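Case study.
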Amino acid sequence: MLVWVSDVKAWAPGIENPAAWSIWSDDPYPVTSDERPAAADVPAMTRRRLTRWGRQALEVAGPCAKYLSADTPVIFSSRHGDTQRTLSLLESLAAGQALSPNAFSLSVHNSALGLFTILHELQAPAVALAAGRETLAQAWIEAVTHLATGAPRVLLVHTDEPLGGPYAAFADEVDMPASVAVVLERKPVAGAVPVSLQCEAGTGAGDERSMLLAFLAWWFSFEPQMRYHAGDTTWCWGRRDYVA
Amino acid sequence: MADMAEDIKQMIIEELELEDITVADIDTNAPLFGEGLGLDSIDALELGLALQKRFGVKIDANSEQNKEHFRSVASLRDFVIAQQS
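After joint prediction, the assembly is written out as follows.
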């Protein structure tokens, strides 16, 4: 199904505006940095509770809040979730220490989404999902499903960071700390880009880099199409009439 | 006793990750919750845990007096001193 993308916001350390993303897309290397986004529009008393993972999500979601109305579904996706927080809780358990109530209260996959919906008083359907290496594509399918069943607009937010600490040994793709927010529309609106996502039988091979990294490299380039190989499945994003 | 109040303020800043707030910004006698510093119930739980860890005080979760103990830095200080003696 063809949908219209009316806005995209993305963040990675040192890459915070479309011009910087465009330069990065010429040579989309994985950024390594511990830098966290400012998430300046999140009230300080809420922001203090967020790890980088959650800050990344709210950094890009915040500027898209102005597009939300009472019936705008919101999807937050992340392959790994807030692993930094998970790890700190597990380390406390392993050491026989009491768990931090704050960390525990936010140790769910929808924690960033929950804070976002509270901050903006959203009451439309909201879901946080994960689907392995294909998480971003599956979140896109979720968004398209909302559009196909009547929602005029959907906000999709994806955040991830490389696996760290003891999890690093399990990393199976090239990743970087990054987030993206995409506003998808059911009908054409001025300035929006028509985008399709299709799924084909895969070649068995898998791309080395994460789907988020591949998507960002494609979106901020001038390429009309992007194919992402995920083993049994190949995902193909395409756009038309792109005006830079 | 001034020192323990400073220690408690430092603990509050560290445990609750209060960005941009220094020990000097916290009024010893001002309310911690709602008005004043504006902390919430999750913060109260976090502080209860921190007091146990750092000062070895035991907090009875069902005590009616918790609200009074947690009113301000001054009341927390008095509570810790009473528990330790």
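Observations recorded in class. Helices of chain B lie at 2-15, 41-55, 66-69, 73-84. Chain B has four helices and no strands. We will return to this complex in the next lecture.
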